[in-house]
Write a structure and sequence with these properties.
This protein is of the alpha+beta class. The chain has eight helices and 22 strands. β6 and β7 form a beta hairpin. It is globular. It starts with a helix and ends with a strand.
């Protein structure tokens, strides 16, 4: 037991050193160096059927050009006001309507797109136009020009929505944010449509290709190909008790992640799958491409359906259950955990 005079003396000491911008470590040691991750975010789920009316209302309020990017940001309930879904990642739903163009720009933040609904839109990444279809995964690497458009044809086109995932909070922490607007609303096309998929999407590389960047040279990973691969593996019986069947999107030139700061995966849970509980240090965002089921996160049950988004905090227990064949896209900051030797996983015994 410390005397009142001793406690008063410590309080006075803390006040005195505060004038010199100092704090005592002994008052904060256990919070700064916890025994295991004490996440500042919480598990949460966003239901697409509830969010979609808000997106369509935003489409009536302002154009894509006015907004630059017409996006509704999914903020984690535990860290409101920070435009973050995890400590290091941003997520939002972007809408583009028929006849619109989201103007060209570039930034140091890396971005991913997962198409949620609609087929009449495209994105242009460094001079290559990439078509969009539900479930497609598209990358926009750091400092690459990109704009988005939605063609208006004889049938009028349709609203197109995709999930944006960026490392905005991470670059904000590092103080490495830069951006630039293109001189034209739409950048000039300098490559034939489908060129990156032709060069790098068939387990082949141009004979003189040289790796100059950790970023994948393949910008477009069509869902049709990914889905076929997942179901082929399911037919072969390669079912993991925790993940079902899970594949990571790879850089075909290096075998690494598609982007150096964001890990991206797609997994298949067959109907009736009851996944075992596991946890990992990378907080992860999931988007439901197909199917329905439940995610048990830290003991809390979240029922999901197609197009929903949910987030799993660092080191929170997760088990996935599927009431029908279910496909889940996910992204996290796992590459950073791996590069720093910090990645930890714990799996409930099989």
């Amino acid at each position: 037991m410390h005397s009142i005079s001793s406690l008063d003396a410590r309080t006075a000491f803390n006040q005195d050193i505060a004038a010199d911008h100092l704090v005592p470590l002994w008052d904060q040691l256990h919070s700064l160096v916890p025994r295991e991750p004490a996440s500042t975010i919480q598990a949460a789920l966003w239901r697409y059927r509830e969010l979609r009316p808000h997106l369509m209302r935003a489409g009536r309020l302002l154009t894509a050009a006015e907004a630059v990017r017409r996006v509704l940001v999914m903020e984690n309930p535990a860290i409101r006001g920070r435009a973050s879904i995890t400590q290091s990642l941003y997520a939002g739903l972007q809408l583009i309507l028929p006849g619109e163009v989201a103007p060209s720009h570039r930034h140091t933040q890396s971005a991913l797109r997962l198409v949620i609904e609609g087929r009449s839109a495209h994105t242009v990444v460094d001079g290559e136009r990439i078509p969009m279809a539900p479930g497609d995964f598209i990358i926009t690497p750091s400092w690459t020009w990109h704009d988005h458009g939605n063609r208006e044809d004889a049938e009028g086109g349709e609203p197109v929505v995709w999930l944006d995932g960026l490392d905005i909070p991470l670059l904000g922490f590092l103080g490495a944010q830069f951006a630039e607007e293109h001189a034209s609303e739409e950048q000039p096309l300098t490559q034939v449509d489908g060129s990156s998929l032709a060069r790098y999407g068939a387990s082949l590389l141009p004979v003189r290709h040289r790796v100059r960047s950790p970023v994948s040279p393949l910008s477009h990973y069509p869902y049709e190909r990914t889905r076929d691969a997942l179901h082929a593996l399911l037919r072969n019986g390669e079912l993991d008790p925790w993940d079902g069947i899970k594949l990571r999107y790879a850089n075909p030139a290096t075998g690494g992640w598609a982007m150096p700061s964001i890990a991206t995966c797609m997994q298949l849970l067959p109907g009736g799958f009851q996944g075992r509980t596991w946890r990992c240090t990378d907080a992860t965002v999931y988007s439901v491409v197909e199917g329905c089921g439940d995610a048990i996160i830290g003991g809390q049950r979240f029922a999901f359906e197609p197009k929903d988004t949910f987030v799993v905090p660092s080191w929170a227990g997760l088990s996935l259950h599927a009431s029908e064949d279910t496909t889940l896209f996910s992204f996290s900051d796992r590459p950073l955990h791996e590069a720093l030797g910090l990645l930890r996983e714990s799996r409930e015994p099989a």
